[in-house]
Amino acid sequence: MRHPDAAAEESIGQRIRRLRLERGLSQRELAEPGISYAYLSRIEAGQRAPSLKALRIVARKLGVTPEHLETGAPVSLAVARELRLTDAELKLRVNGDLPALEATFRQLVDEARAEGETWLELRARVGVGLALACRREAREAIFHLELALSSGSVSALARPDVYETLARCHASNGSSDRALELLDAALAELERTAPEEVVTLARLAGARAAIVGTNGNGGGPREALADALERAQTVPDPFARARMYATVANGGDGADPAATLALRRRAYGVLDAADDVRELARAHLLCADLLLADGSVDQAGPHLDRAERLLALGGEALDLGRLRTRQSRRAVEAGEHDEAQTLAQAAAELLEDHPAEQGEALHALASAAAAAGNLEEAEATFRRAIEQLAGGRRWREAANASRDWAARLRAAGRTEDALEVMDRATMLSIRGMGAEVRRAR
How far apart are the C-alpha atoms of 428 and 65, rounded to whole Å? Predict the structure, then answer.
């Protein structure tokens, strides 16, 4: 095997001669009209620099690219950039080194722009935005993702993740109106171009409901999400979805190659199919959350059951823990106290690596213990839950746990203790409102 640096040390003529000999060709066999035997001999000897036409003829006959003859690289520079970009995109999705990935994406933006590779530049720009969003740099992420959307080549069908991420960034940056405007436009586009793509519709409806729910008004979006999830009851198999993406791509007028290529990439995205199953399960969990908060326990049940079936296909500990937490809350409301404690304990164990999420599981465990009459045990668990939720800056959830605790104390006739805990809930709510104001600035 040749050393990697050996190719870089070769001249073009030496490289042509080596490749010719490796293929068992003579100079006369390699020559053809447009590049004579004598001309080829002088190129190999280093006495002449080959013309672009000559490079193309020789490259074709040797079975390599002209770039390979010039540089010795096994692939063209354009293909090398594509490989680097794809590698960075994959690493971003599996939690790679975010600062390093952001730097790679930025470098690729510059290189692609210099070479006029518009689609590669656009993909790299999206990569910069997504990496920044993962780093919680919402303001700068918004700049890059909005710039990508302004190209008109990033559709909701091909890249729902871009719309979801950009909407979350706007919401966290205090621009909920812009977030909802984006998601509404994306949902409308899907209804117009691919109404059968029920999974992506449910994903985006879930993102919209989450943003509206954060502002304390989940009624309308909850109904829209429930409707989208109802339509997604029968999820098409990956092959059917791939055919649908290809059909939409081929149905365009060809005026936007970047958009067409994006849809074709989506058609071949096996990883996307796995993502969609997970995101659909999360949408069911969110819908169940909203229904439980509204006291609609019976309606929440089918969504929890559906989420469990989806997560059984390969759910992560985080999603399974969230599911058990919500199942515990449902069991408490149904009076199944032992089952509720078992589910909440399982959730707490699954969420050991996610302290704030574990705080919600502990809240469910405390509620179950209190409902079963074990108030002393419940109080210790309430304290742990509130401490973990507050430590993760989950102020609203910490305040809700405090109010739940206070209600249990009041029901037990411990009015003074209940008032003290309610004071804590008020302070937590104030801290939460302060945090929201700071984010909006």
Answer: 65
**Average pLDDT value for the chain:** 85
| C-alpha–C-alpha distance, residues 171 and 167, integer Å | 6
d(CA 176, CA 382): 32
Q: What CATH number did the domain enclosing 419 receive?
A: 1.25.40
Handedness of CA 217, 219, 222, 227 (dihedral sign): negative
Q: Is it the case that residue 265 has pLDDT exceeding 80? A: no
Give the residue from 234, 252, 277 where a domain finishes: 277
Helix (H, G, I), strand (E, B) or coil at 81: helix
Q: Which residue, 352, 229, 334, 340, is CA-closest to 288?
A: 229
Residue 316 lies in a domain: no
Instruction: Find which of 7-16, 184-193, 228-237 is predicted with most confidence, using mean pLDDT.
Output: 184-193
Instruction: Looking at the structure, tell me whether residues 371 and 402 fall in a common domain.
Output: yes
pLDDT in tens, 319-360: 899 999 999 999 998 899 999 999 999 999 999 999 989 999
The rounded distance, in Å, linking the Cα atoms of 256 and 247 is: 15
**Shared domain check, 101 and 151:** yes
Instruction: Summarize pLDDT for 29-50 with one digit per residue, the tens.
Output: 888 887 888 999 999 999 998 8
Reduced to 3 states, what is the DSSP secondary structure of residue 32?
A: strand
Residues 262, 143: one domain?
A: yes
Q: Quick check: 347 and 328 in contact, CB under 8 A?
A: yes
DSSP state of 421: H
Mean pLDDT, residues 247-269: 70
H or E segment to which residue 159 belongs:
none
The CATH number for 47's domain is 1.10.260.40
- Radius of gyration over alpha carbons of the chain, in Å? 29
Q: Which residues of 273-299 are buried (b: 16+ CB within 10 A; e: fewer)?
A: bebbbbbbbbbbbbbbbbbbeeeebeb
Same domain, residue pair 63 and 83: no
At residue 316, the 3 state secondary structure works out as coil
Q: How many domains would you assign to the chain?
A: 3
